[in-house]
Amino acid sequence: MNFYQNTNEYEILDASQNNSTMSNRYPRYPLANNPQMPMRNTNYKDWLNMCEGNPAPLSSPSQLLKVAGNIVPRILGTLPTFFPGIGPFVPFLTFFTGLLWPSGSSGNDIWEKVMKEVADLIDQRLEENILRQATANLAGLKELLQSYNSAFATWEAGNATPGLVKGYMESLHRTFVQDIIGSFTIPNYENILLPTYAIAANFHLMLLRDIEIYGGEKTPEGKDGLNFNPKDLNFYNCELKKYKELYTNHCLNTYDKGLASEKEKGWVPFHRYRREMTLAVLDIIASFPLYDARLYPAKNNKEMSVKSELTREIYSDVINSDRFGVVPPYNYAQNEERYTRPPHLFTWLRGLDFVTNRLTSGSYSYRWYVLTGCQNKYSYTKGNGTIPGPFRGYPVESGGSASNITIEEGSYIYNLLPKSFEYISPWYFTTNIAMITFLLTNNKNDLPAKFYGSLVNQPNLPIVQTDFDFVTNKELTGPPTYNNYSHILSHMLLGYDWNQTGGIGTHGYSFAFTHSSVDPYNTIAPDKITQIPAVKAFEISDSGPGYVVAGRGDTGGDIVWLKNSARLKIRLTSATPNKNYLVRVRCMARISGNILVERWSLSSTKNDTFGVQGTLKYEYVNTLVTTFDQPGVELIIKNLTGNDMYFDKVDFIPIDIPIDKCTKCQFVGGVCTCSCPTLQSLDTEKEIVNSLFVE
């Protein structure tokens, strides 16, 4: 079943497991008073002071969003694992235990709230006996996790033996495998339990990561490790890969079934479910590949040694979706085209052009000035200028007036406040947007707000403001600020055109947002692995047909599909001088073939050809070892065969970060088998590395 109809020059990859677009409910409430004064070039704080009364508070995020929203930024490294009274960095498992069982909470309150909120979202009754069954084993898990965390901290302090910690690791592993995961796969309730399943899976994979980090003879800090037998460590790595795949597939399959079920109810619940489950589930499982400490070596269990990003786009609910004709409940093709974007290279919003029309009541006693047209202007990451998007709505030629805002490079909209009038029968168009306040940042200062429209000279009638409960600070404890925000505005969509017949002059509006983890400059870190998604390329079609397609839902964003001779080009910010990086490509091919990988700059180039196995699974291909300190440096990947290839991400690994040689461990016929190249002496290793250096 294809949930996306935007097929023009794009094609959907495995569309039955697609998450390229998603959405959220928005609270709407009347303001006590209307701001009635000019606001151009006004700072947001000054604007608040000028208002005749305080604006209504932002709606609080659900517990569902709070839990997932506090897990993901810790994995991405945009927030530290911090607990008051303990310190700025605590082990991930300690932080997650405190997050799900906070001090002062009763029993399994957080888990139960998450389940109940999902039940409300999908309008399914959660029976009390099912709730008890799902949470029956959580009390024991909490105690075991707390004991493990204490044992680990005591061992780190030198006051416990390795055997104590190893015993807790083995007990926890068995508990997850035998009891916990089964608690969240109760037949007919898998959808309600999906976010809690993803949370439990995150706990388990983090435990297996701990075993890999600390299980050897030495820890990354050089202290004595837990000293597992190397064969046992290989077994646990097989377990990590096995359960990572099992958990990911369960989440995707359950998400797909839930999406299909919501589609039967209409486009609005379908649209909302995509966003909620993306934030609560898909964002979490997109991080699972990072937990393999052999592929992504870790310094400790308190932070990730990876600079990673989420490039997925989420969408607000459609403003005016409750007005007749704006969102036909079962016209999926029209709604998708109007209120979402097809898969695309990652974009940065650079400006908005608006058209305003004056609408009047029958007696001309009221005149409203409302938003009736919009065009986005955007750029690709380090791309070649600004690109105008398609115009939506009534053009200026219809009698409207034009206005615009420009968003300078390095500036971003971290919040927006749309306002409209309440519905007044029989004039449907009163609920069209009359004003939007855009709050901007350059990550150093709170920039002056920019505005569409004004409430000055508008009717003195009740105002409705729209806010979005997923647009918060990173901790999800309050509204975003210029130096602490979770998302930025990436696109605005207006769902009314000349051909619409339903609703008298009523428009629908939706807003797209991207995650604050995305680096606008493709900066390569000197001391950790930098992961750059393929959709952050600025060009994919200059030498052959390249497309952006939606993946299964576990990649954290769209992926790039290259046909024969097509190539993708990622422009980078110059890295640390004279530092070499291994370029590792995460890609998938239907049939085995070759890719050309090139480091290009005006001053020098380096390239080579590498093979890709046709496994129809993502694999890691080690390619060039080279520097990236040249001005204007780019990475180019070209498909050299006649077979389709799909590219997810590119890893830039500092050459001084050791990658374990036994990365290919898997169960074969129930037996853990690892492919481990023969270990070289240290001197030989240095000779090999030095031979790969370039000037």
From TrEMBL:
Belongs to the delta endotoxin family. This is Crystaline entomocidal protoxin. GO terms for biological process: sporulation resulting in formation of a cellular spore; symbiont-mediated killing of host cell. Keywords: Sporulation, Toxin, Virulence. Residues 651-687 form the 4Fe-4S ferredoxin-type domain. GO terms for molecular function: signaling receptor binding; toxin activity. InterPro entries: 4Fe4S_Fe-S-bd (IPR017896), Galactose-bd-like_sf (IPR008979), Pest_crys_dom-III (IPR005638), Pest_crys_dom_I (IPR005639), Pest_crys_N_sf (IPR036716), Pest_cryst_cen_dom_sf (IPR036399), Pest_cryst_dom_II (IPR001178).
